C-alpha cells in the first residue's frame, strides 16, 4: 500500500506516531535542534540506548538509521538517522539524504510501525537547501510501497519549510 502523506507545522515530540524520526548526528550523543528536544523531552533512556548502539557499532554513518525506544515520549520508537552536512556537492548530498529517508522507512517497517513522522532532516544546522531537501523527502515517500506504514507525517518546524512542503504537495496532487 501507499502510505498517506500529511504535512503539519509543529514540534516532533508532540506528534503521536509509532516512530519519530530524529535528525541525529553521527555520534548519537545528542545535539541541538530537533535532536536536543527529543533527548530533553524523551529523557535519559534514549541516550542510554544510543550509547549501547555506539559501543556496539561506533555511532551511525551519514545516511544510515538506528532505533531506540522512545523514553517518555508517547511513541514506540525513535529512529535516529544522520543527514548529510551540506557542502555544495548536489549529487552526493542528494544520495545521502535519500538514504536517510529510505533507511528510516525500511527500519520503521521492520519494527511493524504503522505511522512515522519526519523532521526536515539536514535543513537546520546542516544547511541543506530546504527546497531540494523537501523534493527529495517527498520523492522517496510518495513512491514508497509499504507493508505496514499507513501514514507518514512531515513535521515542519519553521514556516518556510511548511510553505515549501505545502507547495510541492499541491503541485503533485
Ligand atoms: P540537522 O543537523 O539535520 O540540520 P536540525 O535539528 O538542526 O538538524 O534541523 C533539522 C530540522 O528540524 C530543521 O528544519 C529545524 O527547524 C527542525 N526542528 C528543530 N526543532 C524541531 C522540533 N522540536 N520538531 C521538529 N523539527 C524541529
Q: What is this structure's SSE topology?
A:
Elements: E1 4-9, E2 19-24, H1 33-42, H2 44-57, E3 65-69, E4 77-82, H3 90-110, E5 115-118, H4 130-143, E6 151-156, H5 159-172
Parallel strand pairs: 1-6, 2-4, 2-5, 5-6
Antiparallel strand pairs: 3-4
Helix pairs in contact: 3-4, 4-5
The protein binds adenosine-5'-diphosphate.
- The percentage helix is 40-55%
Which value, in Å, is the CA radius of gyration?
15 Å
Largest sheet: 6 strands, mixed
Average pLDDT confidence is 97
General shape: globular
Proper CATH architecture: 3-Layer(aba) Sandwich
User: Which cofactors or ions or other ligands sit in this model?
Assistant: adenosine-5'-diphosphate
Order of helices and strands: EEHHEEHEHEH
Descriptive notes:
It is a single chain. With 173 residues, this protein is an alpha/beta fold. The chain has a single domain (4-172), classed as Leucine Aminopeptidase, subunit E, domain 1 (3-Layer(aba) Sandwich), CATH 3.40.220.10. The protein is 42% helix and 19% strand. It contains 5 helices and 6 strands. The protein has helices at 33-42, 44-57, 90-110, 130-143, 159-172, and strands at 4-9, 19-24, 65-69, 77-82, 115-118, 151-156. A 6-stranded mixed β-sheet has the order 1-6-5-2-4-3, sandwiched between helices. β3 (65-69) and β4 form a beta hairpin. α3 crosses α4 and α4 packs across α5. The longest helix has 21 residues, at 90-110. It is globular and about 45 Å long. The mean pLDDT is 97. The structure holds adenosine-5'-diphosphate (ADP). Adenosine-5'-diphosphate binds next to α1.
